[in-house]
Amino acid sequence: MGLDRLKKTPCGFCFVEYYTAEFAYNCVKYINGTKLDDRMIRTDLDPGFKEGRQFGRGKSGGQVRDEHREEYDKDRGGWGHIKARYEKDRELGMNKYEPIQHIPTGASSNINSRLGAKKRGYDSSDDENTAKRQKGDLQELSEPISNDNEDSPVNPTSTAEPNEEATMDFNDE
Predict the structure, then answer these.
(1) What is the dihedral of CA 71, 76, 79, 80, to 10 degrees?
(2) What is the pLDDT of residues 82-129, one digit of tens each?
(3) Looking at the domain assignment, is residue 116 inside a domain?
(4) Is residue 118 part of a domain?
(5) Mean pLDDT of the chain
(6) Could you tell me the residue range of the domain that residue 41 belongs to?
(7) Residue 43 placed within a domain
(8) What residues contact residue 43 under an 8 Å CB cut-off, 6+ apart?
């Protein structure tokens, strides 16, 4: 009878030895798939005894089949080892995120003065020149554009009336 490696409890399987290989093959042929106590019997041929296999082959002590079982089976120990592995991984994952013990503070507001830099990279005399320059640019943009230069290829005014079509002549001179 197979035992759980860690708990030493029955795993729900056993090994049966037959006198001949023919009897073993007949067992697999006729008993495999039958029911006993509303449980399906599964028969396999065993490749032979190896030391260390008497307590199951699974990593968790039970059978390898139980480690991959996803459905609930009360007769085989509940959810199987996949559910236990999931819970263990979840617990380990939660331990990675421990509560914050120390909340870091931001940089101080006078960091630039500590580094020896000016407030914005220029001094107050630059402020006045910049303000005058920007004010002058705005005045230039608000003045109407005049076309004093007749040689200019661009004519900003249109001679077409609202209901007339504008035409352009391209003469090669």
Answers:
(1) -100
(2) 566 667 777 777 666 666 777 777 665 565 555 655 555 555 555 555
(3) no
(4) no
(5) 64
(6) 21-95
(7) yes
(8) 27, 28, 31, 32
Euclidean distance between CA atoms 93 and 150, whole angstroms: 80
Cross-strand pairs, 3 = 10
Model pTM?
Answer: 0.29
Q: How far apart are CA 107 and CA 78, in angstroms?
A: 55
Query: Per-residue pLDDT tens for 28-47?
Result: 999 988 988 887 888 888 76
C-alpha dihedral sign at 150, 152, 157, 161: positive
Supply 157's token pair.
Answer: 């005014």
Q: Is 7 part of any domain?
A: no
In order of 86, 88, 96, 120, the CA distances from 93 in angstroms are 10, 9, 5, 46
Question: What is the distance between the alpha carbons of residues 55 and 52, in angstroms, rounded to a whole number?
Answer: 7
**For residue 148, what are its two tokens?**
């004093």
* Residue where the block lists tokens 């002590």: 61
Supply the CATH number for residue 39's domain: 3.30.70.330
Q: Mean pLDDT across the stretch 150-171?
A: 52
How many domains in the chain? Answer: 1
Which residues are within 8 A (CB) of 1 and not within 5 positions of it... i.e. 6 or more apart? 10, 13, 14, 15
Using DSSP, state whether 96 is helix, strand or coil: helix
Helices then strands, counting H and E runs in the chain, come out as 5, 2
